[in-house]
Amino acid sequence: MTSLDREPKSYVVRQGLDRILLELEVGDTVPPERELAVRFEVSRETVRQALHELLVEGRIERRGRGTVVARPKLTQPLSLRSYTEGALLYGRVPSRVVVTWEDLVADDTLATDLALPPESTVMHLERVLLADGERIGLESTYLPKSRFGDFRQTFDPTTSLYAAIRASGVEFGEATERIETVLASPREAALLESTTAMPMLLMHRKTLDTNGVPIESIRSLYRGDRIAFVATLTR
């Protein structure tokens, strides 16, 4: 047998862990590193590497000093549905924690995105997104104050913003979205109860109404271990 025929120890451990997880339920404790190292006859560092891969994939999670089987990721559709609609579609309970709700002077990029004159006032709403009480995303929404200024008095920021926008008579037309992988800043990681080493999905969205007028500019940061996105493609 050549070296190419041998399976790397890390691969063997990973396959073994996959089989173990198939026999466990959500919330069950994963065997500790020491026990797994003895079972697979490898170093604890090799086991630790395989467990880290499962952690990044969202299949396990740290709970106290132990590791347990994680719930399946929340799947969100890439569409003009709100976060609330997407979460409810997959049987999860959405909620939000308001971080910031303030007026800002738009910089050149934001003014261009929202088709506003330079130095126009925009409203910035920053919220932590939760599913079944678990923090999964950090969303920053920018709205033209000239169009939605009354929301500061009428809108409950812990509820669905899209529902409020529709209720105001604005119809969503289309959106442009870009998604990339990033690492969170210390502040973002703390708000998401994660770490700066955990890969995140960064989403930028610009939404227009049916007349082609910008509604919002959004920057959303999602935990890569707790959420996945799905799109339906047609010809």
UniProtKB/TrEMBL annotation:
Keyword DNA-binding: yes
InterPro entries per UniProt: Bact_HTH_transcr_reg, Chorismate_lyase_/UTRA_dom_sf, Tscrpt_reg_HTH_GntR, UTRA, WH-like_DNA-bd_sf, WH_DNA-bd_sf
GO biological process terms on file: negative regulation of DNA-templated transcription
GO MF terms, alphabetically ordered: DNA binding; DNA-binding transcription factor activity
Top-level taxon: Bacteria
Keyword set includes Nucleotide-binding: no
Protein name: GntR family transcriptional regulator
Coiled-coil region list: none
Family matches, as CDD domains: WHTH_GntR (cd07377)
Keywords on record: DNA-binding, Transcription, Transcription regulation
A Pfam family annotated for this UniProt entry: UTRA
Signal sequence extent: none
HTH gntR-type domain sequence ranges: 6-72
The species this protein was found in: Antrihabitans stalagmiti
